[in-house]
Amino acid sequence: MRPFALSYARPAVKSSAATPYTYDATRQLNVLPDGRPATSSRAVLLATGTTASTAGSKTHFDD
Amino acid sequence: MTVLVLTCEEDLTADMVVSTLHDLGVPLVRLDPADLPGSIALSADYTGDGFHGYLKTGERVVSLGSLRSVWVRRPGTPGTRAEERSTWLTAEAEQALYGMLTSTRARWMNHPAAAAQARYKPWQLHIAQRSGFTVPATLITTFPSVARQFAATHRDLVVKSVSGKHPGDPPMVLPTTRISPDADFSAVAAGPTLLQQHVSKQADIRLTCVDGHLFAARKEADPDEVDSRFTENSSWKPAEVPDRVRRSVAAYMTSTQLAYGAFDFAEDRDGTWWFLECNQGGQFGFIQLDTDQPIAQAIAAWLAADPLTCHSWPAV
């Protein structure tokens, strides 16, 4: 028998946003192609959704 | 002294804090435990009456005795990027790393023992009641008959995950969902089920607590969706924290020994904040983006503080 709660599960929506940043081990943070910290771009933060409480990747979900 | 940040590389939210620590000139080492063994190496000796150890990641080496604080953000599981992965290797790596780190004098946000306990949602409800929060009637059961009785009593209900986790295979999400009191509850026997009185809310509240500093944000409720994580109908705005809630948060954080917690409340039409949960590792970046509340800065300041600084709660 399927657990009761699973009757209310929905398919996860996979985030299609690309991550336009890479990790810089020297600076210990992610940077944009022009070298600026990724967090300096509000647009990047919003577009990638990595700070939100829900979405699709391991950095999205609340713990 | 050094701040140790345990998180994955792609964690932009951690970057918000790392940038602030850079601005403050605070030495830090950031690493992902998933890289142990591999690009992370460690050693510790317990000889004589002392304990000495160090961690190495890339070209950085940090003495365990020089750690002022440890921030557990989104760490990977130790051993999971090793060439020969196994459950045994993960256990070995986890025991070595966290065993060594918890032997230090460093302050934790949050300590692994406190974090593990705080993840239990039934325990959260218990501590919330004891702390004076208003808590919706809740049932966790595997008895269909008890579920039916609870539904008959409270009528307007939601179901949510006990663990807070989403089903993984295939990838699914399990939002908090309103259910009919006349639902067929027989499948409750197939797994512990959490039913809760539905709070008719006018807004969602996310209150982020960094030690004694509270950052509350409010978002208008979406009439068509119970779970605010799945709505984008409006943005978060700063909110005032009622004194009663402030006192309850202080009691909760003291009971749980957490340095950081993200509380979710439902605000009803009378303005009462109903406790839903406290996520010891809850996200805060989305709140800071909407409200400009300096949460990352508060975390950085806490991490940068003297190791012997005690938790401090302002008088309320």
Automatic annotation (TrEMBL), chain A:
Q: Name one Pfam family in it.
A: Strep_pep
InterPro entries hit by this protein:
GRASP_targ (IPR026496), Rbsml_synth_pep_Strp (IPR025744)
Put simply, this protein is called: ATP-grasp-modified RiPP
Taxonomy, top ranks, is: Bacteria, Bacillati, Actinomycetota, Actinomycetes, Kitasatosporales
